[in-house]
Amino acid sequence: MSKRPLYKSDAMEAIHQTLSEMCEAGAVDRQTMHEFDEVCLTAVQEFTPGEIRRLREQSQVSQEIFANYFNVSKASISRWERGTKKPSGPSLKLLSLVAQKGLPAIA
User: Fold this and answer.
1) By residue range, what is the domain housing residue 24?
2) pTM score of the predicted model
3) Does 107 have pLDDT greater than 80?
4) 99 pLDDT above the threshold of 60
């Protein structure tokens, strides 16, 4: 099962899909596609433990509720906030989206 990319907007998703199909057909080169990916897709950033905690507190939710949004355990959120573990993959992408658009963006 493939993961669905997170786009900045519905319009960007439609444009990106069209350009992807043009790339597959050979009408757009790979370099152009990579540059366009950066424009359309939500950027991923690294987060410090304090930044993760601030995101959760700004959303006014408990660790348990925050964990439910990310489909991880409460213990994982606690470890992220203490710095004993770092989020990666989809969780990191979702954190980036929450930082940009707020928790309702992933609800």
Assistant:
1) 10-40
2) 0.65
3) yes
4) yes
Same domain for 67 and 23, yes or no, is: no
Q: How many domains does the chain have?
A: 2
Say yes or no: 64 and 24 in one domain.
Answer: no
The confidence band for 71, taking pLDDT boundaries of 50, 70 and 90, is very high
Token readout for 38 is: 């950066």
Q: What span, in angstroms and rounded, lies between the C-alpha atoms of 103 and 69?
A: 8
Partner residues linked to 24 by β-bridges: none
Mean pLDDT of 17-29: 87
Residue with tokens 């004993």: 84
Same domain, residue pair 21 and 53: no
AA letter at 92 = L
CA 74 to chain centre: 19
